[in-house]
Specification:
about 300 residues, alpha/beta, Rossmann fold, 5-stranded mixed beta sheet, 12 helices, globular
């Protein structure tokens, strides 16, 4: 087997697309920015097309559980036969099959970059993306059985993904055994961009020259991503959402959440928030991120 696959893992709306835009621009030979609809860094783990192309048959005849049992087989095969470095987006939590085997095989994994974002900000962005109320988003984020594409009543181009609750999702990846892992905060990507993206590039075995990173960051600037989406649309935008790239700021929750909503999120996710530096020793939200932090 080769050294395996790289996974870009995150709960939705936590910076995954930004990192993919950075990678695409860092590895792009030309001086112009890569189009946001051409971020071919690797297939998403839940892509039905990727799974079916590898297996060689139509998976619509299978149920969710049957497909889940085949997904590790696909990832092992791709890890063994891949000839180029790829960075695969994944929103699934790190879960296990009924036989105890992990959905994402450690032996087929070269590394996992896990992106974590303050759930106070995630709630607002997730509500916008899902075209639901913030209260509904908060409810989804606390649901231990929450899924994407889990309905049996329609066929999706993506496979079922167990997201679990926000806390369970984070811990599933942060505490998964036998993984080469780097955990990066979204807030450090925003507040300490050069340092944080140098760390990301080094972990992903990408170029680490300061000039190349600076150019990639220039192309991936959030305003430019918004401009590209306004001009050409973005194929990953949810059908009912007004846009994919909304604000991308740190601390939007201070103006976008009510005191009750803030308390609810802290009550539900306080332990994990404190572990990753979103709450102080007294359980109060931290609003300034003075130093970048990483976890393995």
């Amino acid at each position: 087997m080769s050294d395996g696959l790289y996974w870009l893992a995150s709960y939705p709306k936590s910076g995954n697309t930004w990192v993919r835009a950075f990678i695409a621009n860092l590895t792009h030979a030309g001086p112009e920015a890569v189009d946001i609809n051409d971020l071919h860094t690797g297939d998403i783990a839940s892509s039905r097309y990727w799974i079916e192309t590898t297996l060689g048959f139509d998976t619509t005849v299978l149920n969710h559980e049957e497909i889940d049992r085949l997904r590790p087989v696909v990832y092992r095969w791709c890890a063994r036969h891949s000839t180029a470095m790829a960075y695969h987006k994944i929103h699934d939590a790190y879960t296990f099959l009924p036989d105890g085997a992990p959905l994402i095989p450690p032996e087929a994994t070269r590394g996992v970059l896990y992106l974590v974002r303050n759930p106070l900000d995630v709630a607002i962005s997730f509500a916008h993306y899902s075209s639901c109320s913030i209260d509904q988003a908060i409810t989804h984020m606390a649901n231990p059985t929450f899924t994407f594409c889990g309905s049996h009543k329609r066929l999706y181009n993506q496979l079922r993904q167990w997201l679990l609750s926000w806390s369970a999702h984070v811990l599933s990846w942060a505490d998964a055994p036998n993984l080469n892992r780097l955990i990066i905060r979204y807030e450090d990507m925003k507040c300490h961009s050069c340092t944080t993206f140098h760390t990301i590039a080094a972990f992903l075995q990408l170029p680490t020259e300061a000039a190349q990173i600076a150019q990639a960051l220039h192309h991936y600037d959030f305003t430019r991503l918004q401009q590209q989406e306004a001009a050409h649309g973005f194929q990953e935008k949810a059908a009912r959402a007004e846009s994919f790239f909304r604000k991308g700021i740190v601390g939007d929750w201070q103006h976008g959440l009510s005191p009750t909503q803030i308390k609810t999120i802290i009550d539900q996710h306080g332990a994990v928030m404190q572990r990753f530096g979103y709450l102080d020793a007294h359980g109060q939200p931290i609003t300034h991120f003075d130093q970048p932090e990483t976890w393995r």
